[in-house]
From TrEMBL:
Gene3D superfamilies, per database record: Mannose-Binding Protein A, subunit A
Keyword hit for Disulfide bond: yes
InterPro entries named in the record: C-type_lectin-like (IPR001304), C-type_lectin-like/link_sf (IPR016186), C-type_lectin/snaclec_domain (IPR050111), C-type_lectin_CS (IPR018378), CTDL_fold (IPR016187)
SMART domains (UniProt xref): CLECT
Domain C-type lectin: 2-126, 139-251, 270-355
Superkingdom, taxonomy of origin: Eukaryota
Keyword Protease: no
Keyword set, alphabetical order: Disulfide bond
Pfam families from the UniProt entry: Lectin_C
UniProt organism field: Fibrocapsa japonica
Taxonomic lineage: Eukaryota, Sar, Stramenopiles, Ochrophyta, Raphidophyceae
Full protein name: C-type lectin domain-containing protein
Length: 355
C-alpha cells in the first residue's frame, strides 16, 4: 500500500488490453502515477520482483498511453494528462514518437518508455481505497452493498458489476459475521460461491478455491450439479438453484463509481467488456477475422463470473457451441489466450482437453 492506494504486480505477460481488463476484474486499473514518490514505490515493487525472479524482463505496464491522440499522453482510468514534472520519468530518447508505440512501461530504474501496445508485459494494478461507492458501506478494506430486491444470481452479478463490485466472497468468520449483522434478517442472500458441477467442487466466482465454509446441516448435497450459494438468516450457507430469486450482497474495493460504459451497437455489456454472438458456423481462423474486423477479439474468460454470464447469455441463441480465444498453437498442450495472458481460470468439460 502507498498513501490511499493498493498495488499488485502481476507476473503473467499480457498486452495492454489484457492488462487493463485484468486490473478491472481486480476492482482497479493500471497504475496511475501522480508523484515522484509514487513512481519510486512502483519502481521498488518491480525491482523486488525482478531480483527475486518472479517476473521475466525488467519492465511492466502502467496506465499511460496516447492511443486516442498521438503525443497526448493520458492515464487510461481517468483520461487525465500526465502531471507537470513527471516528464522527468521518461528514459533517454523517450517518448520515441514512432507509429504504433502508444503504450508505456516502467523499468527497474523507474524510467518510462513508449512501446507497442501488443507486446506482452507484466503489469501493475492499482486499487484506490479512499472511499466506498455510493450505496456501499465500508468494512475493513472492503465495501459492501446489500440489495433490497429479489433477483436470480445472474441479475445479482450484473447489479454488483454495475458499480465495479462482485458477489461477496467470505474468507473467515469475521466477514461472515459482518454480513449477518448488516443484512435483512428475514431474507436469504446470494454470495459468490458456486458448485461447478464437476470434481472441482465449490469455488468463488473469481476462481479462488474456498478454505472457509459455514454450511448448514446436511449441506452441501453430495450431488447437486451446477448450483449457487445463499447465506441464510443465521449466517449458514445453503445450495440454491441459480435461477431462484434472492437478495444479494455485493462486495468491492473502496473506489469511486466507474465511468459509464458504452458498447457498440449490437453488443451487450457485462462488467468491463462488450459481447456479441454470431450464430453463423465458421472455423476458428474465420471467427478471429470477423471479430478483428469489428475491432474486437474472440472471447477470453478470466473468471467464473464471466463464464456464468456467458453461459446464461448464450441460452438466448440456437447454437450450442462457440469459439473461445484459447489455443495451444504456440506450444502443443500449453493453452493460452490469443490476445496474451496465461490460462488461470479453467472450466474444462470432462476428459478435456484432449491432447
Amino acid at each position: 500500500r502507498h498513501v490511499s492506494s493498493c498495488y499488485k504486480l502481476f507476473s503473467v505477460l499480457a498486452d495492454i488490453n489484457g492488462a487493463i481488463d485484468s486490473c478491472a476484474i481486480e476492482g482497479g486499473s493500471l497504475a496511475k502515477i501522480d508523484s515522484l514518490a509514487e513512481n519510486e514505490f512502483v519502481q521498488s515493487l518491480l525491482q523486488v520482483s525482478v531480483h527475486s525472479g518472479i517476473i521475466l524482463g525488467d519492465s511492466a505496464w502502467i496506465g499511460l498511453s496516447d492511443m486516442n491522440e498521438q503525443d497526448s499522453w493520458r492515464w487510461t482510468d481517468t483520461d487525465e494528462r500526465v502531471k507537470y514534472g513527471l516528464s522527468l520519468m521518461w528514459a533517454s530518447g523517450q517518448p520515441g514518437a514512432r507509429n504504433g508505440e502508444n503504450c508505456v512501461d516502467i523499468n527497474v530504474k523507474g524510467e518510462w518508455s513508449d512501446v507497442g501496445c501488443h507486446l506482452g508485459r507484466p503489469y501493475v494494478c492499482e486499487v484506490h481505497i479512499e472511499q466506498c461507492p455510493q450505496g456501499y458501506e465500508p468494512h475493513m478494506d472492503q465495501c459492501y452493498k446489500f440489495a433490497s430486491s429479489g433477483m436470480n444470481v445472474y441479475d445479482a452479478m450484473t447489479d454488483c458489476a454495475s458499480s465495479g463490485a462482485h458477489l461477496a466472497t467470505v474468507h473467515n468468520v469475521i466477514e461472515n459475521s459482518y454480513i449477518v449483522s448488516k443484512r435483512d434478517s428475514k431474507k436469504d442472500v446470494w454470495i459468490g460461491l458456486i458448485d461447478s458441477g464437476d470434481k472441482m467442487g465449490f469455488k468463488w466466482l473469481n476462481g479462488e478455491s474456498s478454505t472457509y465454509f459455514n454450511w448448514a446441516a446436511d449441506e452441501p448435497p453430495t450431488e447437486s450439479g451446477q448450483t449457487c450459494t445463499v447465506m441464510d438468516t443465521m449466517g449458514e450457507w445453503k445450495h440454491e438453484s441459480c435461477e431462484a430469486k434472492n437478495f444479494a450482497v455485493c462486495q468491492g474495493s473502496g473506489k469511486s463509481i466507474p465511468k459509464p460504459f458504452r458498447c457498440p451497437v449490437g453488443y451487450n455489456h457485462f462488467v468491463n467488456a462488450c459481447y456479441r454472438v454470431d450464430p453463423t458456423p465458421t472455423n476458428h481462423t474465420e471467427a478471429e477475422k470477423i471479430c478483428e474486423d469489428e475491432g474486437a477479439n474472440l472471447v477470453y474468460i478470466y473468471n467464473g463470473y464471466e463464464n456464468m454470464y456467458l453461459q446464461e447469455y448464450l441460452k438466448l441463441t440456437t447454437a450450442t457451441e462457440f469459439w473461445l480465444g484459447l489455443t495451444d498453437f504456440t506450444l502443443k498442450g500449453m493453452f493460452s489466450w490469443t490476445r496474451g495472458g496465461k490460462l488461470k481460470y479453467k472450466n474444462w468439460a470432462e476428459a478435456e482437453p484432449r491432447l
